[in-house]
Write a structure and sequence with these properties.
- The protein has 463 residues and is α/β, with parallel strands linked by helices.
- Helix content is 37%, strand content 18%.
- Helix 9 packs across helix 14, helix 10 packs antiparallel against helix 12 and helix 11 packs across helix 12.
- It is globular.
């Protein structure tokens, strides 16, 4: 498989208040046609040659729509934390046992309750969507999302593979207000005239149900069976692994989701990782990420005792603590920007190690780390992750695999390929493997221990 053409359009969230994060769905709609046209132009492919369309996108957003499918307001995106009180309609332990996920304000059920309680114009909403299902509905007129996205809502019973009547009742949500559930690689519907206008593609083109980017990134990296720790280094860092049976983490460090193809994805949905590097780069006045890497490489493994907690937007490892905040510790006059830069890279890698250890304890097969996303371009960061985990790190041919995962769903939905496994065989995945350096393991064990002690010591400050 090779990528014929690609293009992108940038848009940004709004932050109306601390802890709030929104996006206008119109941003996504406006980006579709020009971005698709640009990718087709690069590929030298006509629009009428496209066989099917796949959509992948952010998880955990919530958009209210009217009967015509029009958005009634902005999307409360994944990082929005306003619905904390609304999440607490059930005790955390029974909810986790039923859904596989943590009681959390980021999930869709809590956001629906918040919108209904604080936005009178949304109390009569016809549907509540996640970003992927919203776009699919705008393109096809069909309200549907996949089992993976459904399993993030806090309304989905993992064992039954369907909405839970008990949870619907607890959150006071009628199932008619939610998308139907289908396989990611199945056909959601076909482009309507309005969908053709939005996309610039021919009316009647098949559109896959699609999935969330946590799942499409793994799928686009050829992950359709257990064996790899998947680490996606974007603005946030998502770490997970596939398992053939659903297991629930009683400690709550990882959540369990349905995954395209019938497996289960055990994942920590992420902390600001690439975002922490970007913040640090600006703080140090560095021109680009290459300059950041050069600075960090000047410090030895362990950053000579400097630790960084990657909790700029709350901690997700070694525990979920929304009120936690990032910090540097261990600074002396002998330390400089290079030690702090390396500590940022190491702190994020230590959080990844925490998740890997927990997945290993739960029986996940972890033969190597498949490193994806923009952060995979840093060989220094890849080496740090290999050294601190003891696992080889595989660097991909294509770093941004979420669009590839969307294309995989489209290929099966459009009848181009038989199934997801057939697609995985076509994906040329690994360009390079970085093995751990045993000489660095002791330094990283010590530094990881210091990071964990720091987290524990700061617990009273977080609360």
């Amino acid at each position: 498989m090779s990528i014929l053409g690609e293009a992108s359009s940038a848009y940004w969230p709004d932050y109306p208040r601390p802890g709030w994060a929104e996006q206008s769905p119109g941003l996504w709609e406006d980006a579709l046609a020009p971005t698709i046209a640009a990718a087709l132009d690069v590929a030298g492919v006509a629009a009428d040659a496209v066989r099917a369309l796949g959509i992948a996108g952010q998880l955990d957003g919530c958009i209210a729509t009217d009967a015509a499918g029009e958005a009634l307001g902005p999307c409360l995106i994944w990082m929005d934390r306003r619905a904390t009180d609304e999440a607490e309609v059930m005790d955390a332990e029974p909810l986790r046992a039923l859904t596989g996920i943590n009681r959390d304000a980021g999930h869709m059920a809590a956001k629906i309750r918040w919108l209904r309680g604080h936005r009178p114009e949304m109390r009569g909403a016809a549907k509540f969507h996640q970003p992927v299902s919203y776009l699919v509905s705008r393109l096809t007129g069909e309200a549907v999302f996949d089992h993976g996205l459904a399993s993030t809502t806090m309304l989905y019973a993992l064992a039954a593979r369907d909405y839970s009547p008990a949870l619907l009742e607890a959150f006071e949500i009628d199932v008619s207000c939610l998308p139907a559930i289908a396989d990611a690689e199945s056909l959601a519907g076909r482009l309507t005239a309005a969908g053709a206008a939005l996309s610039g593609l021919p009316e009647g083109l098949g559109v896959a149900v699609g999935t969330g980017d946590d799942f499409s990134s793994a799928l686009g990296a050829g992950i359709v069976a257990p064996g790899r720790l998947v680490c996606v280094l974007g603005t946030a860092e998502v770490v997970g692994a596939l398992m053939t049976e659903a297991r629930i983490d009683e400690a709550g460090l990882v959540e369990t989701h349905s995954f395209p193809g019938g497996h289960f994805y055990m994942e920590n949905p992420g902390w600001l990782s690439g975002g922490a590097v970007e913040w640090s780069r600006g703080l140090f006045g560095l021109a680009d990420y290459a300059e950041f890497d050069r600075l960090a490489a000047e410090a030895a493994p362990g950053a000579e005792g400097v630790s960084f907690l990657p909790a700029l937007s709350g901690a997700m490892a070694p525990e979920w603590v929304a009120s936690a905040r990032a910090c540097f510790y261990g600074l002396t006059p002998a330390h400089g920007a290079s030690h702090m830069a390396r500590a940022v890279l190491e702190g994020c890698a230590f959080a990844m190690r925490d998740v890997a250890v927990r997945l290993d304890e739960m029986g996940a097969e972890l033969e190597a780390i498949r490193l994806l996303g923009g952060g995979a371009a840093s060989r220094l960061w890849a080496g740090i992750r290999a050294d601190c985990s003891g696992l080889p790190v595989e660097l991909p041919v294509v770093a941004d695999t979420s669009p590839v995962g969307a294309a995989v769903c489209a290929a099966v939905a459009g009848g181009v390929q038989e199934d997801l496994a057939a697609c995985a065989e076509l994906i040329g995945v690994v360009a390079e493997t970085i093995d751990p350096d045993p000489a660095h393991r002791a330094a990283y064990d010590d530094a990881h221990g210091a990071y964990r002690r720091l987290f524990t010591s700061l617990g009273p400050m977080f609360n």
